[in-house]
Write a sequence for this structure.
């Protein structure tokens, strides 16, 4: 076996995933960094080593012994003392959910979660998703330009995941609001006074889910929370009520924000060039491929994080134990050694499904099938009903200021 040549880690002082330049167009920043020459670099602005090459990101995901998930949801910046105390007093612990746990704790929680989040339960959601789509589309005024995000991509996954969980409909809006605060606190750079406000919302969010679990204990239904409680009934020590609330905390956010941005990115990329939209309109069998190509080309989760459990070497760069890693999934999706002509969006790309947008290994996204189902049904309905759909020209897209979740905040369209 050839020996890997070890070298000093390059430093990129200007790299900041929360800078105005990066938020506006991370792919332009990506092209300026010459990643083929320097696939690993250190970013002092955030104190992270940035991993960009497909095979290296894949290797990190696959080696949970060397790379801990503990950093997955840590605040990007050190929180104000008062904000930290509010979180601790509210039961928001440093290891808040399954995605940031390592074995054996992760294994113990993943098993019952996967059992409750069964393929059958996901498949049975199709009729409900179609009904929700009908209700949403009926509310849109199609005689004037409309925002695809506020009218469709935001309410659809929120309604789907909250109903899937068993949340009462009258509480949907409150959970949507809490999800926004969570994104800013864990993946943004809020000022100290903002941190305190966000922390208070997080404790209320946690308290609500604990109360939901307590209510479901006595009033079961055909939903995910009740399915988890049924597993608790069988083995109370293996899945506690607090852990069920933690699983719901993770799902309520991940199942909403990521799918909102997935569908938004999907519609943006198909509609920004009319020939792409016309292609899937004329051949709906390409819709699943278009979804995978969007996840490769413009993923709704462009960044994820790990921390080293021991000294490691990545792409010839020595990285110490305890180092924080920023896995640039969007860069991995543009790796030319895996995806030929990576900057070309191709709905017929044969290996698009090999993207890493849902992770890999033991932490592979447990809700990926549900998210892709929602995206497929949304696109099927839109291409069938509105084949003349087109984007309003000269829009200036904006994006939420966080490192891990990306999609347009508004996407204005009209019927041609």
């Amino acid at each position: 076996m050839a020996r890997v040549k070890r070298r000093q880690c390059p430093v990129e002082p200007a790299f900041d995933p929360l800078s105005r330049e990066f938020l506006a167009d991370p792919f332009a920043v990506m092209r300026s960094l010459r990643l083929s020459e320097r696939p690993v670099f250190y970013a002092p602005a955030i104190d992270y080593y940035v991993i960009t090459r497909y095979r290296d990101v894949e290797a990190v995901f696959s080696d949970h012994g060397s790379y801990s998930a503990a950093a997955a949801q840590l605040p990007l910046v050190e929180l104000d003392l008062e904000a930290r105390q509010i979180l601790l007093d509210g039961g928001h612990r440093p290891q808040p959910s399954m995605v940031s746990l390592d074995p054996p704790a992760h294994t113990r929680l993943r098993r019952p979660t996967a059992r409750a989040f069964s393929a059958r339960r996901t498949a049975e959601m199709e009729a409900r998703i179609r009904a929700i789509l009908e209700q949403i589309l009926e509310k849109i005024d199609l005689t004037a330009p409309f925002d695809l995000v506020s009218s469709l991509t935001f309410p659809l996954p929120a309604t789907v995941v909250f109903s899937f969980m068993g949340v009462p409909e009258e509480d949907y809006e409150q959970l949507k609001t809490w999800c926004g605060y969570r994104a800013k606190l864990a993946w943004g750079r809020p000022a100290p006074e903002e941190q305190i406000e966000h922390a208070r919302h997080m404790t209320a969010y946690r308290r609500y889910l604990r109360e939901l679990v307590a209510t479901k204990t006595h009033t079961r239904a055909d939903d995910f929370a009740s399915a988890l409680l049924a597993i608790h009934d069988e083995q109370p020590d293996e899945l506690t009520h607090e852990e069920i609330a933690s699983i719901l905390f993770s799902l309520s956010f991940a199942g909403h924000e990521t799918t909102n941005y997935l569908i938004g990115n999907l519609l943006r990329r198909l509609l920004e060039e009319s020939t792409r939209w016309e292609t899937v309109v004329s051949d709906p069998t390409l819709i699943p491929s278009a979804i995978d190509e969007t996840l490769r080309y413009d993923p709704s989760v462009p960044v994820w994080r790990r921390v080293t459990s021991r000294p490691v070497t990545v792409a010839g760069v020595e990285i110490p134990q305890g180092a924080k890693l920023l896995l640039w999934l969007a860069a991995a999706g543009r790796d030319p050694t895996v995806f030929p002509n990576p900057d070309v969006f191709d709905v017929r790309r044969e290996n698009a499904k090999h993207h890493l947008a849902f992770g890999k290994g033991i932490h592979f996204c447990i809700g990926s099938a549900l998210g892709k189902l929602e995206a497929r049904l949304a696109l099927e309905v839109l291409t069938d009903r509105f084949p003349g759909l087109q984007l309003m020209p000269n829009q200036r897209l904006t994006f939420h200021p966080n490192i891990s979740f990306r999609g347009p905040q508004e996407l204005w369209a009209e019927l041609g």
User: Anything to note?
Assistant: The CA atoms of residues 97 and 247 lie 6 Å apart. The mean pLDDT is 91.
